[in-house]
Design goal:
CATH architecture of the largest domain: 3-Layer(aba) Sandwich
CATH class of the largest domain: Alpha Beta
Helix content: 25-40%
Number of helices: 6
Shape: globular
Structural class: alpha/beta
Number of strands: 6
Radius of gyration: 16 Å
Bound molecules: magnesium ion
Largest sheet: 6 strands, parallel
Order of helices and strands: EHHHEHEEHEEH
Strand content: 5-15%
């Protein structure tokens, strides 16, 4: 199968590093569970959208982003069993180099730039399945839809919208293997 995989908060902990960064800079103590909207700045009353959104654009930020547990091992097993994996990310161009070198190729060294697609219109990409925490990236796509649980999507009824909700990479592996079996 062709497996499309989102990057932020699907294979790495962007939100955790981002919230930590804002907390440190502005003396806040917001936790990731409080980020219940796609707009992260909504959880930081008193701060502007710009103040919150400049944090992941700062040089050195991506060094603080860690991989999600089991994501490297599961992706590497899915490739070994004959699937094609593509990372599909809607990254601002300014942060691409640091994000790729400090996160993707550091923790997922078996992936190459040939397997990275940068777009904010994921529905234009053809693949058998997309794994993503962003509901808006799954809606309307021609792929099977696997929703990675995140605080901002926790109240969304994935099943009613034709999506399969997963909570971790062990569950991703089970879902993909069962989709492969029926492919
Ligand atoms: Mg994401």
């Amino acid at each position: 199968m062709i497996i499309l995989v989102d990057m932020d908060d699907t294979i790495e902990h962007l939100l955790k590093a981002w919230v930590n960064g804002v907390n440190e800079k502005y003396g806040r103590c917001v936790s990731c569970d409080e980020i219940v909207s796609w707009d992260v700045s909504a959880a930081f009353p008193g701060l502007t959208h710009e103040q919150v959104y400049e944090i992941p654009m700062k040089p050195g930020f991506w060094k603080t982003v860690e991989p999600i547990e089991d994501a490297p091992e599961v992706l590497s097993r899915l490739i070994a069993s004959g699937n094609e994996v593509y990372i599909v990310t809607a990254t601002p161009y300014e942060s691409i180099f640091e994000k790729m070198s400090e996160v993707l190729f550091k923790y997922f060294p078996f992936l190459s730039w040939d397997q990275v697609i940068v777009t904010s219109r994921k529905q234009l990409i053809r693949g058998d399945v997309l794994i993503d925490d962003g509901i808006h990236n799954l809606e309307g796509g021609q792929y099977k839809k696997v929703l990675m649980t995140a605080p901002h999507n926790i109240r969304f009824d994935a099943e009613a919208h034709g999506m399969i909700r997963v909570h971790n990479w062990k569950e991703v592996e089970e879902v993909i293997n069962s989709l492969c079996a029926s492919h």
